[in-house]
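Figure S7 source data.
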Amino acid sequence: MIRIQNLTKYYGKRLAVDDISFNVEKGEIVAFLGPNAAGKTTTMRMITGYLMPTGGDVWIAGHNMASHSLEGRRLIGYMPEIVPLYTDMTTRSYLDFVARLRGLDKKRTKIRIDEVVEICHLEDYIDVILGKLSKGFRQRVGLAQAIIHDPGVLILDEPTIGIDPIQVAQTRGLIKELGKDRTILLSTHILPEVSMICERVIIIHEGRIVAGDRIENLTTILKGGNRIRLKVQGPAEKVTTRLARIDCIQAVAYEKPFHLVEFPADQEPQAEITQAMVQSSWTLLSMEPVKMSLEEIFLQLTAEEETGS
Ligand SMILES: Nc1ncnc2c1ncn2[C@@H]1O[C@H](COP(=O)(O)OP(=O)(O)OP(=O)(O)O)[C@@H](O)[C@H]1O
Ligand SMILES: [Mg+2]
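Tokens for the predicted adenosine-5'-triphosphate complex:
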């Protein structure tokens, strides 16, 4: 549904997006994750046709955004990082204005305003001047304007930033709901949000894609990503030393009451560990693989890139 190929953006001499390529399939909700200045907003603005790439292409449902941007734009709803609201308009007049811009006729506009107001829970604020809305409700109006023309593709740039926990939960629920029959790319810094809403994550750092996979698959692409947590009945220090002597084990840490061992993804040290414990007459109480949290993955990927450049 969204196809990006070799997308590049220079701002003057500054390379903000560096030759990135990825796809978002129909019906997917994908998180676009990256630290500040990674290039998320720049990429999203190029996808939506608001910013001309320096190089590369974007296709929305087969429409090239350089040569057929009108067709492409019609299919996209975009919630920018900072929603440009006209502070002296009411919610209703603003949504009416956006709907008309999007080419909806009078009748359809009225129907859609009612629908999006209900979807985004804006009923109590429909006749309030936008300048008087709280931040969270301004975000909701931002979402409402993005879906007013019922687009199949949503590009949401940090949709939950700056809103309170209750509204965050509601907004996430809303995005999940919207994602049932739409394709969504959403940028965020908030890691728990990624696993709550998204099936897949694309991590961008310094303008380059450093990872892109289903969340549960991300661990395997990391160097030394595999870890096992053991509980051993025995002298902690001696156990550590013994575990460290096993060939394929790269690191051992003791976090009472567990020993944590790290080994390369293509190795399976379980049998050797068991054997070593038995030989030393210590009892192995438990042994289980440890999955890296998304936060650890994120930190490792962005740190690795830094040392590599
Ligand atoms: N209009 C602009 N002119 C010049 N440089 C820009 C412009 N917009 C962004 N940049 C630069 O491009 C890089 C990427 O910025 P971008 O806003 O895409 O990052 P981001 O990932 O959205 O960050 P954040 O998480 O802070 O929103 C940054 O180094 C930024 O300073
Ligand atoms: Mg941004």
